[in-house]
User: Which sequence fits this backbone?
C-alpha cells in the first residue's frame, strides 16, 4: 500500500519557538494533503487542506498565520507551528490522497510538546 | 457533513467475531461509508469502504443496511492487534476531506 512518512515523530520545544513538521508521500504523488491535530482521548480534528501549488484551506477556528502550511511539491507538505505555546502541544497527523481517491493514507503522527 | 453515531466502546474476546455498529440516518444518496481505525499513538489506517452492497477485504467485512441508514463493520476473528479506535465516516464521492467522529474504542481480551 501507499506510504506516508511523517517527520519528526516527536519534538519538544521551548515556548515561542517555531516547529516544522514534514509529510511525504513516498511512493505516490499526493495532489491533496490534509493536516489534523488530536488531543489525548479525543478524535482527530481537521485543521486544513492543502493542494499542491496553491494556498491551503483552513477549517474554521484554525489560525492560518500560526499554522503555516506549504505544499510545494506533489510529494511534500509541511506544517509549521509558529511561536508555539504550551496549548499547541498535541498530536499532529498528516494524510495524503493520491490517484486512488477513495482512500486516504495517514502518516504516523508527530507528538509536539511545548514547554 | 452527515453525522455518524457509534458506541463509545466495545469489548471482544480474542479469536471471536466482532460487530461494530454505526448509525448514519442522515446519509445522502451519494455518500460512501468509510471505516478507518487508529492504533494507539499512530495515525489512522484505512479499513474498508462501501456504497450500497456489502464489501469484503482481507481486513474486514462491511455490511450495509438496505436503507443505508446504518452499517456494521465485522472483524471475523479479533486479535489483540485489532485493539484500536474504529471510526465510521461518511464521505462524498470524488474524495474530499474526512471528518472524524468520536469512534468506538475496541478492546480485545485474551
Assistant:
Amino acid at each position: 500500500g501507499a506510504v506516508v512518512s511523517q517527520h519528526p515523530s516527536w519534538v519538544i520545544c521551548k515556548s515561542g519557538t517555531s516547529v516544522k513538521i514534514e509529510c511525504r508521500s513516498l511512493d505516490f504523488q499526493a495532489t491533496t494533503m490534509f493536516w489534523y491535530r488530536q488531543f489525548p482521548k479525543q478524535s482527530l480534528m481537521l485543521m486544513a487542506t492543502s493542494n499542491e501549488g496553491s494556498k491551503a484551506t483552513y477549517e474554521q477556528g484554525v489560525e492560518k498565520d500560526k499554522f503555516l502550511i506549504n505544499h510545494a511539491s506533489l510529494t511534500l507538505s509541511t506544517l509549521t507551528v509558529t511561536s508555539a505555546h504550551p496549548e499547541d502541544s498535541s498530536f499532529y497527523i498528516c494524510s495524503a490522497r493520491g490517484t486512488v481517491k477513495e482512500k486516504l493514507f495517514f502518516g504516523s503522527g508527530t507528538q509536539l510538546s511545548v514547554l | 457533513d452527515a453525522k455518524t453515531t457509534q458506541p463509545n466502546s466495545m469489548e471482544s474476546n480474542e479469536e471471536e467475531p466482532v460487530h461494530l455498529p454505526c448509525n448514519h440516518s442522515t446519509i445522502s444518496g451519494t455518500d460512501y461509508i468509510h471505516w478507518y481505525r487508529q492504533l494507539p499513538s499512530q495515525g489512522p489506517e484505512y479499513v474498508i469502504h462501501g456504497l450500497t452492497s456489502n464489501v469484503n477485504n482481507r481486513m474486514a467485512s462491511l455490511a450495509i443496511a438496505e436503507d443505508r441508514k446504518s452499517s456494521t463493520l465485522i472483524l471475523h476473528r479479533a486479535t489483540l492487534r485489532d485493539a484500536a479506535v474504529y471510526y465510521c465516516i461518511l464521505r462524498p464521492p470524488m474524495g474530499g476531506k474526512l471528518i472524524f467522529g468520536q469512534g468506538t474504542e475496541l478492546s480485545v481480551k485474551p
User: Anything to note?
Assistant: Chain B touches chain A through 21 residues (CB under 8 Å).
